[in-house]
Design brief:
By secondary structure, the chain is an alpha/beta fold. The protein has one domain (18-272): NAD(P)-binding Rossmann-like Domain (Rossmann fold), CATH 3.40.50.720. Helix content is 40%, strand content 13%. The protein contains 7 helices and 7 strands. The chain is globular. The chain starts with 22 loop residues before the first strand and ends in a 7-residue tail after the last strand.
Length: 273
């Protein structure tokens, strides 16, 4: 409940960031950013539903988090592009928690297309990326988000991309084996549009829908790519996953009680030039 006051002395600002007692569902939880999200959320007191593909072994990661933070965590496998799989995720979660306070859609599919030029882009590969990134976010919001909307509200955080805000600078990839597929930009643009739509659609249901846009998250990249990146970034370096995770606490907590439809850019000023 939001306190109606103009006196800041009545507010415990530090407690606004506390997530104790909350249950947060995080997809792509075993990925580079997902793991940082899970750790950050757990450190601020929440319990996590670690959701990822079966091959990523979300159950083990959840067990590790549970032991470290001495609170219950749940690990569940899910195919976000499959409606029945997402329904199963919801049902299994509610069997153990009875409620969901937050949903973080951190899943993505890009790597298998990273070398494919637009002129040669295979239709099936396009579908694979769009099915995970856009359809997967749609299904998670439709099924998990609808439950939240019918159960008193909560927070949803989706992850578009810098390349849903601006086009990729092709010079970034010169001299490297990397690139960004068109399907990735298109799918992430859809995630941003969907998030804005839902922020308005569910506002009356006490659902706040926001976004985090990371960029250039370091993961043992090629030296040439890092050097290229530094030339185009005001901060002259790539980011780290823990720098992205800090923003999630704000958007999941009561500290962001009057923020919805926003895209929090954690991109080192990449889009200001």
């Amino acid at each position: 409940m939001v306190i109606r006051t103009i006196d800041p002395n009545e507010i415990d600002f530090k407690s606004k960031f506390d997530l104790s007692g909350k249950w947060i569902v995080i997809t792509g939880a075993c990925g580079l950013i997902g793991k940082a999200f899970c750790e950050a959320v757990a450190q601020f007191g929440a319990s996590v539903v670690v959701a990822d593909m079966e091959v990523s072994d979300p159950e083990k990661f959840a067990d590790d988090l549970s032991v470290k933070h001495q609170k219950e965590m749940i690990g569940l496998s899910v195919d976000v592009s499959n409606k029945e799989s997402v329904k199963k995720l919801l049902n299994k979660t509610l069997e153990k928690t009875k409620r969901i306070d937050g949903l973080v859609n951190a899943h993505q599919n890009k790597s298998h297309l990273i070398f494919e030029k637009f002129e040669e882009l295979n239709e099936d590969n396009w579908d694979k990326v769009v099915d995970v990134n856009l359809k997967g976010t749609f299904l998670m919001c439709q099924i998990i988000g609808t439950h939240m909307a019918e159960s008193g509200g909560g927070k949803i955080v989706n992850l578009p991309s810098t390349y849903s805000v601006v086009a990729p600078n092709q010079n970034l990839y010169k001299g490297t084996n990397m690139g960004c597929p068109a399907a990735y930009s298109a799918s992430k643009g859809g995630v941003e549009a969907l998030s804005k739509y839902l922020s308005s659609y569910w506002a009356s249901k006490n659902i706040l829908v926001n976004m985090i846009t990371p960029h250039g998250v370091w993961n043992h990249h090629e030296k040439q790519f890092e050097e290229n990146f530094a030339k185009f970034s005001p901060l002259e370096r790539m980011s780290y996953n823990h720098e992205v995770a800090s923003s999630l606490i704000y958007l999941l907590s009561d500290a962001s009680s009057y923020v919805t439809g926003d895209n929090l850019l954690v991109e080192g000023g990449w889009t200001v030039w």
